[in-house]
């Protein structure tokens, strides 16, 4: 059942994104920023953690999960290091994911053929 719930919750988050694309004039960049910001706000309020506990990767893999991870890292760093943690906690918590994205993006650039889309 864990896989089913992950699929349903992750799919529901994606449906929200598709609805925003289809029925608003928001650009994809604004939608992505909205999702990350929503994850930060919901994570800071303590609402997103129960969803992650329930749905697992269905809630932690989408961009809202990245925002949640940053909020969680910032809160933990503030508890440990005080005000300085507010500046370093989110980056520290998300460093592995960011590094992986850069690394695999670089690999994709090495092995793919670039060209114009026109």
UniProtKB/TrEMBL annotation:
Q: Keywords in UniProt for this one?
A: Membrane, Transmembrane, Transmembrane helix
Tell me what this protein is called: SpoVAC/SpoVAEB sporulation membrane protein
Coiled coil located at which positions?
Answer: none
Q: Which residues cross the membrane?
A: 6-24, 31-48, 54-71, 83-109
| NCBIfam families named in the record | spore_V_AE
Origin: domain of life: Bacteria
Classification via InterPro entries? Spore_V_AE, SpoVA
Transmembrane helix is among the record's keywords: yes
């Amino acid at each position: 059942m864990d896989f089913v719930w992950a699929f349903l919750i992750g799919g529901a988050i994606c449906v929200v994104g598709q609805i925003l694309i289809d029925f608003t004039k928001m650009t994809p960049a604004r939608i992505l920023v909205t999702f990350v910001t929503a994850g930060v706000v919901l994570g800071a309020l303590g609402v997103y953690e129960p969803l992650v506990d329930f749905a697992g990767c269905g809630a932690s893999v989408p961009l809202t999960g990245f925002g949640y991870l940053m909020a969680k890292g910032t809160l933990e760093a503030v508890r440990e290091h005080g005000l300085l943690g507010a500046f370093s906690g989110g980056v520290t918590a998300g460093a592995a994911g960011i590094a992986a994205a850069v690394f695999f993006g670089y690999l994709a650039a090495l092995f793919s053929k670039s060209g114009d889309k026109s």
